[in-house]
Design a protein that fits this description.
Farnesyl Diphosphate Synthase; 326 residues; two-stranded antiparallel sheet; 1% strand; mainly alpha; globular; 2 strands; metal ion binding; EC 2.5.1.-
Length: 326
């Protein structure tokens, strides 16, 4: 039976490897182009949750992989994540990221896009250093799927007819694919059979989807000081996320039409009205329950792995994902 670990205990398991990952990222962010280095340091240098490299390092521990490329993998996973954020903030016209002006606000759209490209290519340079063709192939596929998810989401903007299958496919591609890659990389580095490596991918995919649903939920229930971005960002961008999709299924005709109009307009000023509409249905608890179900499925994917502190940590992360407030 798994043991519930605190966040501090989880991070303590891989503290030295995380410090080594930070050192490698700092070294790899050095550039002969001062603006590139400045934007990277601004976007990455002061932290963030480092959730994805944490998954990579814990998965390496679960697989008993102690090689140097655990650090390399954790770094390239975080670089890819931050590259997507730099691009996302331009597309979404976001103003805040991690509680401060986003890079597109601080440096402009052009710098954000180009430095995002720089990070993608730096990540692939790190992948090549592993000398593991399976890792490189898997990551190439993952990055392509992430890009497909972003384009798919763009097509969904301001469309109140987006249904749950379309929503779930978007979050699988744009978020969960990288979680899956972060975990499966460990199995590939450790030389595990494909079926066992794929169990790690299933854990990451389910966890990533639960994580994104909670992120979408916090856009209506969170505290701006905790989540580090403006409440109602998704609404302003016209993103039809799970709470909005569920509410449309339950609201009477007038309320449903009003919600559809707000989604089409991307009206942030209507955030209070939207929250009231959500609270008039079961949309908020329904979304949380969906995240909890996926987190449970994530945990089930790891049952065949031997018991260890790393397994406890991965179980605990899945449980904590649905309790997060940021």
């Amino acid at each position: 039976m798994s043991k519930r670990l605190s966040d501090e205990a989880i991070r303590q398991l891989v503290q030295q490897d995380m410090q080594a990952t930070e050192a490698l990222m700092r070294a790899e962010m050095q550039s002969e182009v001062p603006l590139a280095e400045l934007v990277m340091q601004y976007a990455i240098g002061d932290g963030g949750k480092r959730f994805r490299p944490l998954l990579t390092l814990l998965s390496c521990g679960l697989c008993d992989y102690r090689g140097e490329h655990a650090i390399t993998a954790a770094a390239f996973i975080e670089f890819i994540h931050n590259a997507t954020l730099l691009h996302d903030d331009v597309v979404d016209e976001s103003a805040l990221r991690r509680g401060k002006p986003s890079a597109n606000i601080a440096f402009g759209n052009a710098a954000s896009v180009l430095v995002g490209d720089f990070l993608y290519t730096r990540a692939f340079q790190l992948m090549v250093r592993t000398g593991n063709s399976a890792v490189i192939a898997m990551m190439a596929d993952a990055v392509n799927l992430i890009a497909a998810g972003e384009v798919m989401q763009l097509g969904n903007m301001h469309d109140p007819d987006v249904d749950e299958p379309r929503y779930y496919r978007v979050i699988e591609l744009k978020t969960a694919v990288l979680f899956a890659a972060a975990c499966k990389t460990a199995g590939l580095l450790a030389g595990l059979p494909e079926a066992r490596s794929e169990q790690l991918a299933v854990y990451g995919r389910k966890l990533g989807m639960a994580f994104q649903i909670m992120d979408d939920l916090l856009d209506y229930t969170g505290d701006e000081a905790l989540i580090g971005k403006s409440l109602g960002d998704d609404l302003a961008e016209g993103k039809p996320t799970l709470p909005l999709i569920r509410a449309q299924q339950q609201l009477p005709a007038a309320g449903k039409q009003r919600l559809r109009d707000i989604i089409e307009a991307g009206d942030r000023e209507a955030i209070g009205e939207v929250i009231a509409l959500l609270q008039a249905t079961d949309a908020l608890p329904y979304s949380r329950q969906a995240a909890e179900r996926l987190a449970h499925e994530a945990v089930q994917a790891l049952t065949a792995f031997p018991d260890s502190a790393y397994k406890d940590a991965l179980f605990s992360l899945a449980q904590r994902t649905t309790e997060r407030e940021r």
